[in-house]
Write a structure and sequence with these properties.
By secondary structure, the protein is α+β, with helices and mostly antiparallel strands. It has one domain (7-174): 3-Layer(aba) Sandwich (Aminopeptidase). Helix content is 34%, strand content 29%. Helix 4 (104-118) links the parallel strand 4 (87-95) and strand 5 (123-129). The protein starts with 6 loop residues before the first strand and ends with a strand.
Length: 175
């Protein structure tokens, strides 16, 4: 599907926010059909802050947002005592339905390896809620090590879906 199409990864801008929320809505509707943890409606200000801090990223195919995700450099509420200040954390990978099946996670991993090296980070990490076998296989197939499922202890500061389902699968790539 991506033959001869230009692929670019770059930070999102405030001009992308409506499209980001459209993709979040599509992702949430898809999650409902799969009987997995469903993303809540995120606050616009939450995403605006990520954009302003260059923590929302997009993968463009030609000029279309085919995928977007958020990053952070600290994630103590999820990683608890495993937090190491040496990681880039990836959250909310969201794929435009027209581009599903292109395994963008592998492209994100390649981007994250370069981004982590530029920022002196030693790990790429992500999480998913509940025991979603297909996502576990997808992430391990992209190079992540599945560290196991852990019950989160402090979810009050996290988005509401973490409070509803505190069982969290953790993944890591050691660079």
């Amino acid at each position: 599907m991506l033959n001869n199409q230009k692929i670019i990864i770059q930070p999102c801008t405030t001009a992308d926010i409506d499209e980001i929320f459209m993709l979040y809505g599509i992702a949430s509707a898809y999650q409902q059909t799969k009987n997995v943890v469903v993303w809540p409606n995120f606050e616009r200000s939450f995403v605006e802050t990520e954009i302003n801090e260059n923590r929302q990223w997009k993968l463009l195919v030609d000029s279309t947002i085919a995928c977007n995700w958020a990053i952070t450099f600290s994630d103590a509420d999820i990683w608890e005592e495993r937090e190491n200040n040496a990681s880039i954390y990836i959250h909310r990978i969201c794929v435009n339905p027209a581009y599903r099946g292109n395994n963008f996670v592998k492209l994100i991993v390649e981007w994250a390896k370069e981004f982590a090296a530029t920022n002196n980070k030693k790990f790429i990490r992500l999480d998913t809620l509940g025991y979603n076998i297909k996502l576990i296989e997808h992430y391990t197939g992209a190079g992540f090590e599945f560290l196991g499922m852990f019950r989160l202890k402090n979810t009050q500061q996290l988005p509401s879906h973490y409070q509803k389902q505190p069982d969290c699968c953790l993944f890591e790539i050691r660079l």
